[in-house]
């Protein structure tokens, strides 16, 4: 497969970094976009050290001008954009009565509004070649919740709706749009995992960033273009597990 131009947002750490590295290992040229420029450079440098090609770009996804400038820069430098992974996201797990409108807006702007703007700007480039893949990182929390997760759950639910709406709108430009809903993914920054944590899953383990990164590569493969407007749940079977207490 020829090298492709891939933009991954929120790629300075965790899940985004794993996705960026997976595409680079596949031989693609990766744009590592993150609000923390130093973190983005670390990821890009790691990719280059391992023989890949990556470019770190500062991008605050809450700012439309940052997104427009990034997309224009990438198109000018490479002439095309093949894949966009809308991964950037934040959470605010805070008591419902204490959650402020400003905090709510910050989550929606970072998680959903940015995906809308990025998709629109990147699609303008993709449609010139009549091909492209957009992957939105949603969450199993879009369809199930625990207390005090309103802002995050709402943003991820919106990502699912945005996904199938974009798939419908971009079909004539041959741009496929899909979502991935990760379950419990251990990025290494949370507390240590217990045996009970792993046992909650049919797969008998908590997920890791590579589980999601490999799924992104699968959805972006042009041979899988018939998968469109879909949400791929990757959670080790956790949301299918019936629990009686």
UniProtKB/TrEMBL annotation:
Record key words, sorted: Oxidoreductase
Any Gene Ontology biological process: bile acid metabolic process
Pfam family, one: adh_short_C2
Native species: Halalkalibacter krulwichiae
EC code(s) of this entry: 1.1.1.100
Name of protein: 3-oxoacyl-[acyl-carrier-protein] reductase FabG
Family: Belongs to the short-chain dehydrogenases/reductases (SDR) family.
GO molecular function: 3-oxoacyl-[acyl-carrier-protein] reductase (NADPH) activity
Gene name for this UniProt entry: fabG_2
Record carries keyword Metal-binding: no
InterPro entries: NAD(P)-bd_dom_sf, Sc_DH/Rdtase_CS, SDR_fam
């Amino acid at each position: 497969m020829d090298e492709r131009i891939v933009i991954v947002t929120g790629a300075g750490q965790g899940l985004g970094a794993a996705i960026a590295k997976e595409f680079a290992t596949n031989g693609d040229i990766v744009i590592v976009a993150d609000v923390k420029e130093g973190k983005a450079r670390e990821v890009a440098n790691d990719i280059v050290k391992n023989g890949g090609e990556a470019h770190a770009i500062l991008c605050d996804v809450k700012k439309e001008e940052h997104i427009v400038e990034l997309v224009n820069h990438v198109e000018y430098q490479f002439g095309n954009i093949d894949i966009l992974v809308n991964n950037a996201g934040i959470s605010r797990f805070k008591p419902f009565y204490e959650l402020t409108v400003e905090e709510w807006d910050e989550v929606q702007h970072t998680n959903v509004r940015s995906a809308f703007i990025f998709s629109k700007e990147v699609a303008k480039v993709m449609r010139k070649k009549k091909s492209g893949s957009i992957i939105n990182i949603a969450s199993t929390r879009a369809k199930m919740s625990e207390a005090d997760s309103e802002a995050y759950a709402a943003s991820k639910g919106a990502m699912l709706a945005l996904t199938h709406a974009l798939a419908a709108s971009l079909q004539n430009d041959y741009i496929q749009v899909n979502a991935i809903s990760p379950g419990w993914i251990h990025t290494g920054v949370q507390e240590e995992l217990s045996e009970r944590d792993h046992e909650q899953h049919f797969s008998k383990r908590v997920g890791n960033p590579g589980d999601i990164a490999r799924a992104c590569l699968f959805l972006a493969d042009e041979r899988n273009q018939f998968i469109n407007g879909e949400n791929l749940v990757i959670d080790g079977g956790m949301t299918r597990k019936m629990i009686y207490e």
